[in-house]
Amino acid sequence: MKQYDEKDIEEILQNYSAEVFKVLEYKNESMYVPIIEKTCIKEKCDYFDLAYQALNKNLSNTWTIGNILINLIPYSIIDIDNILKFYKLFHSKENGTSKHFQITKLLVLNNHTLANKLLENLIKIDDDFVIPHISAILVELHNSNHESQYNTIVNYLKNDNILQLQCAISYIHLFNFSDEELKEIFVIFKEKVKLSNEKIDRALLYSSYDLIEKGYGYFSKILLLYIDNDDIEIKFHLSQILNFTRKNHIKKKWFRKSFLSIIDVDIENQNVIFHIESVLKEFLKIDDYDFIKEFLYKWIEKGNLSSISSKNTLSTFKHEFNEHKLFSKFVTESLLHENNNLHKVLADLIEKDIELDADTMQAWNKNDYLYVCRKILGYFYEFKIMNTLVFSMLSVDNISDEVKNIIFEVLVNHIGKDYSYDTLEYYKNLEYLELNENEKQAKDIVIEELEKRNQQVRELSILKELTPLSLQNRIISRTNSIAMNKAMKESRKEDSFFSVFFPNRIIILYGRGSFSELAGNFSDVTYLQSISHSVTMPNATRTHPVDYELERYKFRMAKKGQ
């Protein structure tokens, strides 16, 4: 691609060529605006015609052409026909930005005659491309030329011509209307909701949002008129507006009521889900646990958040919620809640081992503990998650012996049976000094029962006879490796030699990499190129998978008090 310097740009401008829109495409405004000011002569060239040619030949993208044209307008010959021709082509190629409005606003700035002449031509055209341009002229006449357009806007609003309604509604927030005038417009807005027209609905929603942002909070009542509307487009517009306003209005009643209205959206609609996730993360920032819980519970009840397709949904929110101080309380209350769909979602929502909330469990009775244990066994697969959830029940001081026996039974004969190696290693590594009396008792019982069971297995000579030599060697090697690692860890604690000559490896947040510390000096961070995740499968999935899944199903279906 040829590189154009200042002299090249000046030459192209002097030749009045449409190539100027191509040449300036990748140039910064701060570079080319001074050249335009120095080179262009007023009313020597029709830049709207050149912009039309550039669009027609695809010399540049519409956004760039619009930006460049804005800087050339003050020097352009004014030809209404060419302006309208450009407007129409520009709209056909791109109609989703504010460039259309900006171009006309600058064109008629402080030019009362041109504004009225262009308006006269535009209102004769029955085509959507005229909407931002008519609005721009009316705004300019009202705000800068002090020619009140209030009556014009009201007249547009009071008829049912869709094009005129869009002209009046879409840019209403840009008019310098008084509060009294806006209150009258608000009354008309409420009437126009009844039209149930897709274009008008969109205009009413976003204009109400703009006016709310300007401080006219009563326009939130327009949004509330749409909360019972089942149209997916309406739900998308509402979700987007709520996302836009979340920082300033998240505590408002209208905001929360509107947000609760989109809970029945299909989980596959990722455009809406994106906005829902952003709003939920904002609720996390203000620690509004009660509303998050209410929203998720209602979404599960009325929507399809518990479907298989939802597993990869809300991934960022899930991660932040898992790290939040109130997540433990949510998990605890949700496990006790009698709702199978909620438990399905919870199994997908939990990303790491999490302890149950001790304060919440203080009010539990025996049936509550039994019910939650069954749900943990029925919905979760990973050892760390299951073990931590169950073991954390022992952090409650006032649990009865009957409840403790239920917990010990789960740890020994369910988790300990299906994840025998992981269970034994975990409880052997627990430090007595860090445990309460309930936890110490659990440690002793689990280790004693599992070692007894392992000893019984080892004494079955037939198992040794059938073990291949290669497997025996692997078992011996693994046993030696575990013993060596354990010895090294103990040596690190007791011998200063290791702390002087061997660096301490530190894992950074979320396991994204690591760095080392040696004698107070820190190495550079080494980031992981990839992440692997392995799960220990329960022994029962190999020995009697059908019975195992039937048992899990019964745990999932169990009622409280059974």
Task: Tell me what portion of residues adopts beta-strand conformation.
Answer: under 5%
> How confident overall, as mean pLDDT?
87
Low-confidence runs: none
| Helicity, as a percent range | 55-70%
Based on secondary structure, the structural category is mainly alpha
How large is the radius of gyration? 35 Å
- Quaternary state of the chains: single chain
Gross morphology is elongated
Distance between the termini: 77 Å
Please give the largest β-sheet: 4 strands, antiparallel
Q: How many separate helices? A: 32
Number of strands: 4
Features:
562 residues; mainly alpha; 32 helices; elongated; coiled coil
Can you summarize this structure?
The protein is built from 32 helices and 4 strands.
What does this molecule look like?
Strands 1, 2, 3 and 4 form a four-stranded antiparallel β-sheet that branches. The chain is elongated and about 100 Å long. Among the domains are: 227-352; 357-460 and 546-561; 464-531, no CATH class. It is mainly alpha-helical and 562 residues long. 64% of the residues lie in helices and 2% in strands. α7 packs across α9, α15 packs parallel to α17 (270-285) and α17 (270-285) runs parallel beside α19.
